Every structure is written in structure tokens, then in C-alpha cells.
Amino acid sequence: MTRKQDSAKLQDWKVVLAENEDFLKALLQPVIQQVLEAEMEETRGAGKHEWTENRSGYRSGYYSRGLITRVGKIELRVPQDRQGRFRSEIFERYQRSEKALVGALSERYVQGVSTRKVKAITEELCGHEFSASTISRINQSMDAGLEKFAQRQLEEDYPFPILDACYEKVREDGVIRSRAVQVAIGVNWDDRRCILAVELANRESTSSWRGFLEQLKKRGRRGVEFLATDDHPRLKRAIAEVVPEAAWPPCCVHSLRNALDHLPRTADDDCLTELRWIYDRPNLAEARQDLSA
Q: Is 95 in a helix, a strand, or coil?
């Protein structure tokens, strides 16, 4: 696959992630909770149960408050101090920063986000600068939340999984390498999409796809009826070994892209329009009639 196609695919995955409420809600709540704790620590000059020379005031428990977001209502525990001096700006500033925060969370899941970017977003969210150690702790909490989401058990059937991969540059031991990002999106019986798994692999090999599918099975993947993928031969072999019960119709989007290899550029638009008409036919007889015409 070409680099241009990889870039387009990555943007597609980010859009799906940003629209996936279950995925984002599981990450958003602990991140904002961690930012609230960081605000309190910065205000007091000390962490929870910590004594420092610069500490000012005492904590006094929490009160509950809901925050309405695009992924639903999030319940938060807002820290308070005995003197009543602590005031969080998160609730006033959140709507302005939500899009950037949601985008960073989804991007972090796919390819990682730098500490600098997390620092910029949290400071926009809270209205003041955090220390490097505080940003590091927030980053660690995001890592823990992402790991928990990636290893969660799948509680419902996803009969229509979509499998694909894109390639990203990853820094390992100070060296930039190209790694495959393998992605599984499940569609349930209510036609709702959910991110099932995102994993790094050295390349798209039969063994990497086999391990990816077996890990999904261990986490509770069941009830697969149709698989949508491209025509990658190693992925097809892994599917035949791990999910032999599923039907594998060729993906119409990839089929349309492959058709372009046999067409002059001047005919691309017209031919693609007519090919899409064929895919939209309600039955095989009408499709064959369109094809012959």
C-alpha cells in the first residue's frame, strides 16, 4: 500500500475513534480526574498526604459534579480544601478545549502523543502552567487507561468485524522505524461500530495477524459471521486458520480501488460511479443487468 493511502487510512481510524463514545468515555473520565488532582496539588504545593516546605492549606475531601460532554455525562470527584480557596477552571474552559482533548486521546491510542502536546492541552483546559512532573503523571495515567481499554473483555457479539492496517513511523531505542498498526472495528447487531483492538506489529505477516485474531478470541470475540478486509494474502491465511467459520466477501471499497489499476485516469470518475451503482443494486439479477449495460 502507498504512503498516501496509509495517511488516508490513519485519518479514517482517527475519525472512527473520535466518534466512538464507549472508547472515549473510558479514557476521558480518568484523564480529567487526574487533571483536577494535579490542579489541587499545584495549588497546595504538595501531593495528597505529602508534606513539603511549600505546602499551603489542607485538603478537605471531595464533592461530586457532573460534566456534560459529547460522549455523555461524566461524573467527577472535585477536590476541595479547608480554606475554600481552590477553584478549578476546567468546567468553564472545557467546551473550548474538548475537541483538542478528544482528538489527542484518539491520536494517542493510534500512534502516541508527545508530552508537549498533552502539556499544551491540559494548560489550555485549566488556564495555567503545570510542572513537568505533573504532566508526566498525567501521561502515565493516560497510558494506564489505554492499556485497560485495550485488554478489556468483549461483552457482546460483533458479527461484522472490519480488519485493516496502516503504517506509522515509531521511535524505538532512538531509531525511527516503520511499524504496522493493526486495527479491528466491530459492528454489532444494532449497526453500532466499536474499536475492538489496535496493536503494533513489525509488519503485516501471517503470524502477526494470527496473534492479533487469537488475542481477540481470548478477550471474548464470538459470533463472527462476515469479515471485511482488503485482499492481503497473509491476512487471508490468518483468517482461514483462526476464524474459519466466518464468510469473507471481498471489501467493495478495496475492490473499487483495485479497479482503478486497470483504468486510464481520464475514465476514473465515470467508471467508479457506474461500479458503485452495481454495488447498490438490491439483487444479483439487477447487478448483472447493470454490468452488461
A: helix
